[in-house]
Amino acid sequence: MTALVERVDAVVEASAGVLRLEPAWVARSFLPPGRRLGLDEDAYDVGLRGAICERWLASTTPADNAVPHPDEGLSAVVTPDGSRLLLADLVRDAPALVLGEAYAATHPGGLGRLAKIFDYGARLPFHVHPPQTYAARVGRHQKDEAYHFLPGVDQGAHPETFLGVQPRIARGPREDALLPHLVAWDSDRVLTTSQAYLQVPGEGFMVPSGVLHGPGTALTLELQEDSDVLSMFQALNAGRIIDKDQLLYKDVAPDDRAALAERAPLAFVDWARNGDPDLFDRAHLVPLRHPASSAGVRRDWVFYGSARFSGQRLVLSPGSTTTVTEPGAYSLFAWTGSVSWGGAELVGGRPGQDEALVVHATATAGVEVTSTGTEEATVYLFSGPDLHPEAVALGAGWAR
User: Fold this and answer.
1) Which CA distances in Å does 95 have to 11, 88, 329?
2) Residue 258 CB partners (closer than 8 Å, separation 6+)
3) What domain range is 358 assigned to?
4) pTM, to two decimals
5) What is the pLDDT of residue 397?
6) Number of folded domains that form the chain
7) Cβ-contact 212, 275 below 8 angstroms
8) Residues 320 and 364 both lie in one domain
């Protein structure tokens, strides 16, 4: 047993398998921050790195930014002695302890999913995540993702999400309709090829790799595959032209760029899905009641329809108690109220006290959860690949 594994074992034992996590802040340079993440006002702007626009939750995925920053995007475990222990190191060196022996053996990628909150002051540029065939060409992994729009907070100036392309474009001109915008790289008129849908608090969207999208300004809880690949198709955003080399070509293989120029990232687009006349119904996520709900405890699926990840929302009345039993390790994020989660005290709205990861042995044995405050407690749970096959069938057609 290595020194790190011994240390991890001691931390897990001391925490009874509920590992509290420090917040992982991520900067982006292409948009202004929404300033709703709970930081001090002077903490958002970080110079050449841009501004803090995202918080990654239980993350073992490093952020892939043009200006690197040590351990950006990686979550750290709160340890009894205050020493730094990255969750990524823990999962890499003690996978069976965290994920369970059987799951770790069949899922060498570790947690396999990434949860985050993104908080932008302007709509994100219209972009696409390359499917696995193209992501693999740059040594990366594809990025299916899903959104849940957090309630009870300002929605920002543009709370609508662009999704896909108009069906007539998918049936007809396809690449030729988008290519002129990528070549000119001087406007936001690529959005005329798409259509937008309102971001309704408490609801969301499923967005598979290959589907073009431009998320709006609602404070968004996102669950996705553990990757940071993309190609931005919108040049003008938030009043300025974004960097074409860094963002249009970010995850385009050099050989493809040399041979095809702006046509190269158009190969990422899944035209059948983008032009589906039922796109909204297939993408739309509304909370679906989980069978474990009970008096004073409401439990809903909020991320479903994919074998790659799933997520739940647990809402507890003040003083209510329930037992949460899961088939494998999961992470959690307290949004409102306060709870005791297997003895770990979590408080919504307090970064540093609102996040944890529950290891396999504790998760499968069951954890007693009690709402300890005077207001309703809302906690989100995030699970990785293949842990909830029953949630896959709840999707409206994009399940994989």
Assistant:
1) 14, 10, 11
2) none
3) 288-392
4) 0.95
5) 65
6) 2
7) no
8) yes
